[in-house]
Amino acid sequence: MRDLFRIGNQELSSRFFIGTGLFPNPHVQKEAIKASGAQVLTFAIRRINLESARDDSILQHVQDEAYTYLPNTSGARTADEAVRIARLARASGLSDWIKVEISANERTLLPDPIETLKATEILVKEGFTVLPYITDDPIMCKRLEEAGAAAVMPGAAPIGTGLGILNPYHLGLIVEEASVPIIVDAGLGTVSDAAQAMELGVSAVLMNTPVAKAKDPVWMAGAMRLAIEAGRLAYLSGRMEKKKYASASSGYEAFKLN
Amino acid sequence: MKLVINGKECELLDVQTIADVVAHYGLTGKPLVVEAGGIVLTAEQWGSALVHPHMQIELVHFVGGG
C-alpha cells in the first residue's frame, strides 16, 4: 500500500522523523537512523568550538545518504533569534525547511506560542518551509496553519521527558481541525506512545530521546518504525467501538447442553 | 586585526576576507555557515566579504538535535 503524505513540495512515505542528538556515538546513530527508515532528520545549529580541533559536525556522519534535513532553532528565546538561526541554517544550502523551536522556560522547555507564531509569519514570508513546534493547543495549532506553516508539530509532553501523550483529547481535536500535516514532536517515551499518536490520526511522529537513550538505540529505532506503521494502519482501519459489557464472539444463546 | 568571533575577542593577523578567517581556523571545506556583522553569508560570498576591525563574526555548524 502506498500511503504517502506531503510537506511543502516533498512527498514522504516514512512517518518517522528522527532527531540526531544524544546518541552514544556516530556509528550507533547511523545504524539507528537506518533502522528507523526515516527520510527526515532533525539537527541543531551551534557555534563551532574554535579551541578544539574535533570535528563534531553532524553532517560528516550522514551526508552520504539522501535525507531531507530539518534544522531546528533550539536555543532561541525570541522570534528574532529563531529567524536569525533559520537564516543561518538556510545559508548552508542544505535545506529551506526549518523547525521553529522557541523555549521561554529552561525547566520545561515548553514553546513560547506568541514568539513561535511571530517567527512562523516572518519565515513563511521569507520562503521557508516552516514546521513550528508548539504546545498541544488546538487553537494555537490552527493559528500556525493559517500563518502558513507547512506542518504543525504539537508536543506530546515536554522535550526529553518520555511521559507520552499527556492530552490525547487535544491531539485528536488538533488532527480533526487540521488541513496541514500534524506531527507529534517531543515527549514520547516508547512504542505504545508512538502507536497511540498514529492511532489518533497524526501524519507523523518526531522522536529523538526515546531512541537515542534506549539501551539499544538501533533496536528501538526499528521497534518505533513498526509501532508507527501499526498505529497508522490501525487508524486507517478504524477501530471497533468500546462497549461497557461483554459480547461473545460466537454468540452466547446458540448452543446449550441441557 | 581585532575581531569578535563566536562571542570572543580575537587578534588575527593577515586576514582580509571571511575566507581568510575560515582558513585561519582550518575550516576551509568543512560544512559551516558564517554570519558577519549580522549578515548571513553563503560560501560563495566569503572570498569577497571584507572583514573590518571589531566585526562580530559567527562561525556555526550543525550538531545533533531533535
UniProtKB/TrEMBL annotation, chain A:
CDD domains: ThiG. Its main location: cytoplasm. It catalyses: [ThiS sulfur-carrier protein]-C-terminal-Gly-aminoethanethioate + 2-iminoacetate + 1-deoxy-D-xylulose 5-phosphate = [ThiS sulfur-carrier protein]-C-terminal Gly-Gly + 2-[(2R,5Z)-2-carboxy-4-methylthiazol-5(2H)-ylidene]ethyl phosphate + 2 H2O + H(+). It is found in: Cytoplasm. 1-deoxy-D-xylulose 5-phosphate binds at G160, A186, G187, N208, T209. Pfam families: ThiG (PF05690). Residues 7-250 form the Thiazole synthase ThiG domain. GO terms for cellular component: cytoplasm. Keywords: Cytoplasm, Schiff base, Thiamine biosynthesis, Transferase. Its EC number is 2.8.1.10. One of its GO terms (molecular function) is thiazole synthase activity. The keyword Ligase does not apply. One of its GO terms (biological process) is thiamine diphosphate biosynthetic process. The active site is at K99. Pathway: Cofactor biosynthesis; thiamine diphosphate biosynthesis. It is an enzyme of class 2 (transferase). Homotetramer. Forms heterodimers with either ThiH or ThiS. Belongs to the ThiG family. Catalyzes the rearrangement of 1-deoxy-D-xylulose 5-phosphate (DXP) to produce the thiazole phosphate moiety of thiamine. Sulfur is provided by the thiocarboxylate moiety of the carrier protein ThiS. In vitro, sulfur can be provided by H(2)S. This is Thiazole synthase. It comes from Paenibacillus taihuensis. The lineage of its organism: Bacteria, Bacillati, Bacillota, Bacilli, Bacillales.
TrEMBL record, chain B:
InterPro entries: Beta-grasp_dom_sf (IPR012675), Mopterin_synth/thiamin_S_b (IPR016155), Thi_S (IPR010035), ThiS/MoaD-like (IPR003749). It holds the Pfam family ThiS. Gene3D superfamilies: 3.10.20.30. CDD domains: Ubl_ThiS (cd00565). Coiled coil: none annotated. It comes from the Bacteria. This is Sulfur carrier protein. It comes from Paenibacillus taihuensis.
